[in-house]
Amino acid sequence: MQIDYLKSLFENNKEKALFGRYITNNHIESLLKKFNNNFIVETIGYSVLKKSIYGIKLGTGRKRILMWSQMHGNESTTTKALFDLLNSFTHKETGLDYILKACTLYIIPILNPDGAEAYTRVNANEVDLNRDAQNLSQPESLVLRSIFDSFQPHYCYNLHGQRTIFSAGKNNKSAIVSFLSPAQDQACTVTPNRKVAMEIISVINRALQKVIPSQVGVYDDAFNINCVGDTFQSKNVPTILFEAGHFYDDYHREYTRELIYLSYVTSLDYIANNEVDGTHSEAYFDIPENEKLFLDVIIRNVSGYSNGLVDIGVQFKETLVNAHLEFIPVVEKIEKLNNIYAHREINAEGEKVLDENQKHLSIGNENVFVILKNKKIVLNPK
């Protein structure tokens, strides 16, 4: 599919009611109602705090694809893109009917509604649902497994968001979108169904390279049977981990949302039009592995410390304040950061950098702004 066509599809079908990083049941419930005439929308279970977990079924094709988002409540970019995708399937003029004739999709937009509301990775029992695939100790885990067992998917899309710390390889290139074909055994054997997932990822990567060259990564495939992706892969269902990452100055993840949408449509088009067997999986191994080489801000060449000129590394702490997400700058490192990159760099040129009390910065400090050359510099994003 042509990138320009995909971009126009996104612009015409973007769900304008969803914006930013804080997405909860309250944001999506009114949107789900408009799909009742086109798709099957149902409550498939309840969270620890008895919030509804919703499922959406659409399409009539023989190829079944299960997609779930916000297993981690604070990873919402893929959820926004799901609603953009759903909008696309409600409009005949998009020309995507052929996907729903070839495929049946089952979508869980928010698996962890308690975590989404609290803006936490874990659920209300403080359990990481992505480490509960074997114990199935949580109601949300049981809901997902029940749908997996009853729907019997041919493909799984495990939809997540990643922190701003990742680079695509050992380069000054942030990993804006990342993927993984999870392992299904301790030896990380490249099995036939892993190859199927790898082939689909390769197709997505080829499309994304046209818009974000050298900024797609893959995760280490170390095996953990407690993870949902590894478990479903071990059941011989090709499973793809999607990770929505950081594009420069896009802390609301709105451009990344578009890239995830492009990834959805590109992959679904490929599945609809092909009998994917893993034959063309080799290009997967050309995608660089993610490294943790980024901070949000680095202030370079700062004086006033006993070990000479240093760099000050700052990472934003995502904090929910009155249902509004704030990015609080926290000093993570004070040292020479020669092999670490930043989404924003400030050169102190040998001057001191002070906090609002005219004191040197220390690790753990939360500083919305710093003072450099008698000027106030705001660190957190707009």
Automatic annotation (TrEMBL):
Its cofactor is Zn(2+). GO terms for cellular component: extracellular space. GO terms for molecular function: metallocarboxypeptidase activity; zinc ion binding. InterPro entries: Peptidase_M14. SUPFAM superfamilies: Zn-dependent exopeptidases. It comes from the Bacteria. It holds the Pfam family Peptidase_M14. Keywords: Carboxypeptidase, Hydrolase, Metalloprotease, Protease, Zinc. One of its GO terms (biological process) is proteolysis. The active site is at 243 (proton donor/acceptor). Residues 15-271 form the Peptidase M14 domain. Belongs to the peptidase M14 family. PANTHER family: PROTEASE FAMILY M14 CARBOXYPEPTIDASE A,B, SLL0236 PROTEIN. This is Zinc carboxypeptidase.
